[in-house]
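Reader question, answered in our methods column.
A reader sent in the components of a multi-part assembly and asked whether the whole thing could be modeled at once rather than chain by chain. We filled in our standard form and ran it. Here is what they sent:
COMPLEX SIZE: two components
ENTRIES:
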Amino acid sequence: MRHGLRVITPGIKATIQDLGRKGIRHHGLARGGVLDLRSAAWANKLLDNDRNAACVEIVLGGFRAEALSACEVSVTGAQADVTVNGKAVDMWRSLQLAPGDELAIGHARHHRLIYLAVRGGFETKEWFGSRSVVVREGLEGCMPLQPEDELPAGSVDTSLGAPRIARPQAWQWLERPPVLGLIPGYQYNQFLTADLRRLVTTEYKVSDESDRMGYRLAGTPMADPPPGIVSEGIVPGAVQVPGDGQPIALLADCQTIGGYPKPGVITSMDCGLLAQQLPGTSVRFEWTDVLSAQNQRRLFERHYHQTVWSEDSLSLSWR
Amino acid sequence: MIEAAGEDALLIRFGDAIDSVLPAQIADLCQRIEALELPWLVDLVPSYTTLLVIYDPITINVLDAKARLRPLLAETPSADQTKAETTESRLIELPVYYSEETGPDLAWIAEQKGLSVQQVIDRHTADTYQVYAIGFAPGFGFMGQVDPSIACPRKDTPRTKVPAGSVGIANQQTAVYPKASPGGWQLIGRCPTVLFDEENLSLLKAGDQVRFVSISRDEYLAQGGQL
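And here is the structure of the entire assembly that came back:
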């Protein structure tokens, strides 16, 4: 018996993502992976999945799927109306689906990305050891979800028991005004002091030209960004400033090398905060440092691996 | 010089200007880093004058990662040493069918530079090129330096579709488009060799040396080329 879900409609755009590819960027392949680390991790944590379990990253919503078998799922990320067979259910908790149940995720309010995970993880095709889909590379079969796509789920011996429900701490970070931690680096020293000050005092609007490769930001342009540089390796999170003085924040599907100057890199956790912002929303940058960012990420990862659900499934405690 | 590039990468700089001796030095450092089998290493991205070391910040912090790599930089050989000792640098020959049908900008370059089309082809095939970086698309290798007598800037308006295998020039760089894609380089021919596939990944690596060899239309088709 097939175990998992069948896509009825993917909505605007939906792709399978895990934490991305490793060890292949020198071939010109992008890292890929979930844009919002926190929401995707919670979707998996609610189901006791492996950290790298693949989930569905849904842009703006409108996603519907049918359960092919009994399975447990969770929906996290931007707030949206979620129903099972037309009946309203909550996000940020595990949900039990029976064979034939229809899960419908409505339109995202206030933010951009919704994550759907299944217990056992989605076991779709792998490229280079990862299930992440990087559409722009045009690899065979590496595409957004289409109606009728079957999404097999990994089988797991035991069910969860009582439904897991995340506390508001799981999503409160998303509701705060978006301030993005920026680690100085790359060509930081080549920027004018006044332009670096502009960077952390300007409210930048997320433009419509924003996608998994990067988000274009619009605000008071820098007065005199440095000229183009010899192309060098770039990482998701890097902020490029081309000649027009408007920053571009690179994200998971970005190119592997680039020639625009960069004042720094957004922290991995805040890349998700940026990616969740709808076009027209304002964001700000603030300086941080690499050790603080690493500590923040390390604590987040440790929380995933070293906390367990209580018996009543309402809280997590450290092992 | 080694600096943090965000929380999961270190950027090592070898120089400020493009220099044909650097790719071999950078490739040599890559090999020495790989030989350490560091459990926290995620990827190495060499490019022109730099090496980006991508690592796992959960396993190691930036201070320890820098400390671990710094001794390797001190060992970096001089340009002369690298030429003599680097045996790993490969010379790859890429066959190219140069023609008007595969190189729509060939005639334009010839006219711009006051040369015949055959002279442009001869000069493109005369040099050995250094692969400086793989990027822009899977398997796309940036190579240089192109003879100034045939070097031309990118097109003002990029083409929405460049056929797979197209060989292009952009200023002093030359490259082959592994797959059809949008592109702004000046196109002079087409190469039938597979530059990227899912199993073998990128044929070219930063540090490789490349020569182009002119082949006929029949040879191009016989080698799997598409027209």
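What stands out: Chain B touches chain A through 45 residues (CB under 8 Å). Chain B has six helices and 15 strands.
Send us your own complexes using the same form.
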